[in-house]
Amino acid sequence: MLERNLAMIALFAALIGALAFVPALTLLNGVPISAQSMGIMLAGAVLGPKRGALAVLLFLALVALGLPLLSGGRGGLGVFMGPTIGYLVAFPIGAFVTGWIAGQFRAPMSLPAVLTGALISGVVIVNFIGALGMWWKLETSFIGALAMTTPFLLGDIIKAVLTAVITAAVAQARPSLIKQRA
């Protein structure tokens, strides 16, 4: 069972890294847009809170080692000193909370369970903590930092819906995953 857990954690860490390049869009202000945050939500929803958070921590360790796995092809210790530090701190929390909330429902991994978890953690919590990081690093007002997150909210909501649909489909195709969430 340990080998299976490690394989799933590694698989989701790789998925999170790969989703940084889907789609490869950059806003006019230079901010890259990707599906990476959906990978964070999927890790928590499919793997459960603990393994989901561990997958994100493994991903962040690879980023810290210098692999260019963040949106825009960024990596290295420097990204942990920049204005996106709040998002990086929030990623494992988001995965954990998504998995925990989804597991509290009578039908874990169902569309409503995952959508609730993904919206609360993947949209609200991650963007709130991300705004805290921008507030700190950019020395702006907190309201100004929160305002910087608003262009991403619609995309994050769409990613939360996709996470719920994908997870519900995976749960239906592989019901054994529900029993293995931890």
Give structural notes.
This protein has one domain: Arp2/3 complex 21 kDa subunit ARPC3 (Orthogonal Bundle). Helix content is 71%, strand content 2%. It has seven helices and two strands, in the order αββαααααα. Strands 1-2 form a two-stranded antiparallel ribbon. The chain is globular. The two termini are 12 Å apart. The model has no long low-confidence stretch (mean pLDDT 92). Belongs to the BioY family. InterPro entries: BioY. This is Biotin transporter. One of its GO terms (molecular function) is biotin transmembrane transporter activity.
What is shown here, in short?
With 182 residues, the protein is mainly alpha-helical.
Question: Secondary-structure blueprint of this entry?
Answer:
Layout: H1 2-18, E1 25-26, E2 32-33, H2 36-47, H3 49-64, H4 85-103, H5 111-138, H6 142-173, H7 176-180
Antiparallel strand pairs: 1-2
Helix pairs in contact: 1-2, 1-3, 2-3, 2-4, 2-5, 2-6, 3-4, 4-5, 5-6
CATH topology: Arp2/3 complex 21 kDa subunit ARPC3
Radius of gyration: 16 Å
Q: Give the ordered list of helices and strands.
A: HEEHHHHHH
Mean pLDDT: 92
Number of domains: 1
Subcellular location: Cell membrane
GO molecular function: biotin transmembrane transporter activity
Main location: membrane
Protein name: Biotin transporter
